[in-house]
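call fold(seq) -> tokens
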Amino acid sequence: FLAGPNGRYPLYGSTGRIGATNRAEFKGSSILVARVGANAGSVYAVDGIYGVTDNTLVIRPKPGVNATYLTEFLKYMNLNRLVYGSGQPLVTGTMLKRLDVPVFDADEQARIACALNDANGLIAATERMIAKKRAMKQGMMQQLLTGKTRLPGFTGEWHRRRLGDMLSYEQPGRYLVQTTKQLEAGRTPVLTAGKTFLLGYTNETHGIYTDHPVIIFDDFTTDSKFVDFDFKAKSSAMKILSARSEVDLRFIYERMQLLDFPLGDHKRYWISEYSKQELDVPDLAEQRAISSVITDCDDEIDVLKRRMAKARGTKTGMVQELLTGRTRLPLEEFSA
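ret:
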């Protein structure tokens, strides 16, 4: 198969759809299991006419076996635990054949599949809402943080200021965690300014940073995070940034996310270059108003995230009850 954007039929591999093809070996419902690599054991259902690469196992449900029911069961079994090999992770067809699958009659499988489909639909709808809110926030930030769109009541001139004149910095030495491995739960979160952000927790009681909110800034990558809770730091390659007078810290943090700062040599950037970046900034009142709008948007996204977490938890409970037979769905009653 030649994977690419063009072709009559979708082409699937170990990570899901990877392109298109003009050759299609399969038609109808199948369950695909990633056979090899980092995604080995991942499960997804497909339907229609499609091609499949040779790094993917294809399961074709026999008559009387509901494809959605079997897909959810395989996800519940966490096939990643079957992966073996000291080199490339691998799942084999022999492994899958050895799995014992509780098969109810076709009607009950269909009822279970319908209930789980409803749960999946709620999760997918919430994910779409979160994606939409994030896109709206991004567009709003581009307008408000650059002055292209002004909030009602604000007409004052924006002034060009350097980051170093608006933010003071502190080295993290006094707040570094002493342990090398962090706890899964504990008194105080341990943070990094990189993508991971939360590395774990510590029960250390000394050297905790409490004078927040602040921005933590990775001096080598220029990644940054807004922090409004107590924490300890992991890396000395961090600057802790706080607001000077007439500066709203959240506004400046969000504006920093729009900076197109080119990285070059592996070096520390805050003092030498990044703090010298110049931004157009409104007066404090408008900064705070913009910051409030963005915070409200983030709060709405957080509500949706909690709703999605609850929906996923509910589905997990449903799967455990329905696929093990501990809870049985009643027959639907139909009126004549």
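The mean pLDDT is 91.
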